[in-house]
Design brief:
The protein is α+β, with helices and mostly antiparallel strands. The chain contains 8 helices and 17 strands. An 8-stranded mixed beta sheet has the order 3-2-1-15-14-9-12-11, with no helix packed on it. The protein has a 5-stranded antiparallel beta sheet with strand order 5-4-6-13-10.
Length: about 575
């Protein structure tokens, strides 16, 4: 719209045409002399009438009628206002302000309301300054042309247009005045000529508003789509927030799982160490039992030479019996601890798998890599559970171990009792030795069974230990990966917050304002411009009979030393018939 308005400066070319050239029924040119302050004191109307037969008629007449454009001129010297007559011959920084006021007001309907609009006059003013006495010449809303010896200044204003368009000055200021500034020595001023015409807008220029109408029909779609975008961003933000919250919950669960597997790994290292000690002890027990059995056989062979040895043997059997009691108690304690630890590990791993399954179901197909990792972890957990779950073979081995221990215990007890009898009744020594030998063989056989079970248990414990260590390492890797995922979701969530807020701000401060402007200010301006075009077409001229084809030329008195400024206007018609005052 600003470009549309400013394009009126092209009418500057009309300043060079003082006589009408278009073939209308009647044209008029209004010449008016104004004094240095801008007040009109003499007006002549020159009219050109073209009859139907093609003949031309020219008339001139004086008029006392008030001009539709009022002019007010103010002078300043070095920043202080001064009268034109006092300014003549002075030197300094001169500023001339020529302000125009549109007095051709009309009340019209705009968007259903009564508004005051002015016939749209474009006003061009200009003068010529000699370069000898005037330097650094500038003009607002116009052009400065310097040919070396003199400078021509031409300015434009649109009085009443600001009010007609209803545009606030802080948005767009439409000039209603022209300011000329210069550095002068011995100031003088030739005539300032002002040209005005009501033809600022042509009908063809309004074709652009046909496209503006198309924009109006699309504004609602733009605003609706923008709001849908904002709603979609808010929905996405809610989803991201939920995902972030669930990711943190899963991360907390994984932290608990990792802590549990770490505890299992640490505790089972102790169990495995005990099983290794049991394995070593059972091997030593086996060797000792075999040596005992061999010794008893030797004792049986050398009965006569063993009275004192029997006593010592009896004492050793008592010690052995006490040791076996302690060993049996230790095996039972170990069995109980192993069973409890294994049961706890299976329970924790089962809970872990349940959490993993829920997580896999919650993630669905949106996080394929994470789901694959969780499934692999679940499979490893199931293998460990399988390894920890007692099998029939393991139970049999454990039972054999218990049976062997019980047998050793029983044999040792029997050995002690029999050695006691042997010790008490040397006469019954051969028979007692035989019984001792039988018990010794039972001890040897039981220790072999115990050692075999201990070896199997030790091998299984090593495998279980490796599996638990793998579980602990994998769980920690999964926890680290999930920590990174949680940090990533937090970053996404923060970014989504920024995006949603940005879209909201863009919608509120951008799209809504644009749509409101198009549907409000722009639409209002469009209607006002169309009304101004109607006023321009309806303008009947200065004498109310020229059909709007009127031009106004105001000639301001020159300001010179020792010269009378006021002059009579002398015009010459086209036929050079006569001259009139």
């Amino acid at each position: 719209m600003k470009k549309k308005i400013i394009s009126g400066v092209l009418l500057c070319t009309m300043v060079f045409y003082t006589m009408p050239v278009m073939a209308f029924t009647k044209d008029e040119t209004v010449y008016s002399k104004i004094d240095a302050s801008g007040s009109s004191y003499s007006t002549i109307v020159s009219s050109h009438t073209q009859d139907e037969n093609g003949s031309d008629k020219y008339d001139q007449e004086k008029s006392e009628k008030e001009l539709p454009i009022e002019c007010n001129v103010k002078y300043e010297l070095d920043g202080k206002e001064i009268d034109a007559n006092e300014l003549v011959g002075k030197s300094g920084k001169v500023k001339i302000t020529i302000e125009y006021k549109n007095k051709d007001a009309h009340t019209v309907k705009v968007n259903g309301k009564d508004e005051t609009l002015y016939t749209p006059f474009v006003v061009i003013c200009g003068t010529i300054l000699d370069n000898e006495h005037h330097k650094n010449i500038e003009i607002t809303n116009g052009k400065v042309i310097d040919d070396g010896s003199k400078t021509t200044v031409i300015g434009m204003s649109l009085p009443g247009m600001q009010e007609s368009l209803g545009i606030e000055k802080d948005k767009l200021e439409i000039p209603n005045k022209v300011e000329i500034t210069m550095d002068s020595t011995e100031f003088e001023l030739t005539n300032i000529v002002t040209f005005a015409t009501p033809k600022i807008v042509e009908e063809k220029d309004l074709e652009i508003f046909d496209k503006v109408d198309e924009i109006y029909s699309q504004v609602d779609t733009l605003q609706s789509s923008s709001r849908q975008l904002e709603e979609g961003a808010n929905t996405l933000k809610t989803g991201i927030d939920t995902y972030t919250e669930k990711s943190k919950e899963f991360n907390n669960a994984m932290s608990q799982v990792a802590e549990g597997t770490g505890t299992i790994n640490s505790n089972y290292n102790k169990i495995d160490s005990g099983i290794s000690s049991l394995n070593s002890g059972s091997a030593e027990l086996k060797n000792g039992a075999e040596q005992l059995n061999n010794g008893i056989e030797t004792l049986s062979t050398n009965l006569g030479s063993l009275p004192q040895g029997i006593s010592a043997l009896y004492q050793g059997s008592k010690d052995l019996s006490n040791g076996m009691e302690g060993l049996a108690a230790g095996v039972n304690t170990l069995k109980g601890g192993l069973t409890q630890t294994t049961t706890t590990a299976i329970t924790e791993l089962t809970k872990n798998n349940a959490i993993l399954q829920k997580t896999i179901e919650a993630l669905g197909e949106e996080q394929p890599e994470l789901v694959a990792t969780l499934k692999a972890q679940k499979a490893e957990n199931e293998q460990v559970i399988k390894a920890l779950t007692p099998t029939q073979e393991t139970n049999s081995q454990m039972q054999a171990l218990e049976n062997g221990m019980q047998a050793v215990k029983t044999g040792t007890k029997s050995l002690e009792e029999n050695l006691g009898k042997v010790n008490q009744a040397a006469g019954a020594l051969p028979e007692a030795i035989a019984k001792i030998q039988n018990g010794s063989k039972a001890v040897a056989n039981g220790s072999k069974t115990l050692n075999s079970g201990a070896v199997t248990l030790n091998n299984g414990s090593k495998a279980l230990k490796n599996g638990i260590q793998t579980l602990d390492t994998s769980t920690q890797k999964l926890l680290d990966a999930n920590n990174q995922l949680t940090e990533g979701t937090s970053t996404i969530s923060n970014g989504m917050d920024t995006l949603a807020e940005g879209i909201k701000k863009f919608n509120r401060e951008g799209i809504d304002k644009i749509c409101n402007y198009i549907n409000g200010d722009l639409k209002d301006i469009t209607n006002r411009v169309q009304k101004l075009q109607e006023l321009s077409e309806q303008y009947e001229g200065f004498n109310d009979d020229s059909n709007g084809n009127s031009k106004f030329i105001m000639i301001m008195d020159s300001i010179k030393k020792d010269k009378e400024n006021k002059q009579e206007i002398i015009l010459e018609n086209k036929n050079n018939e006569d001259k009139k005052d």
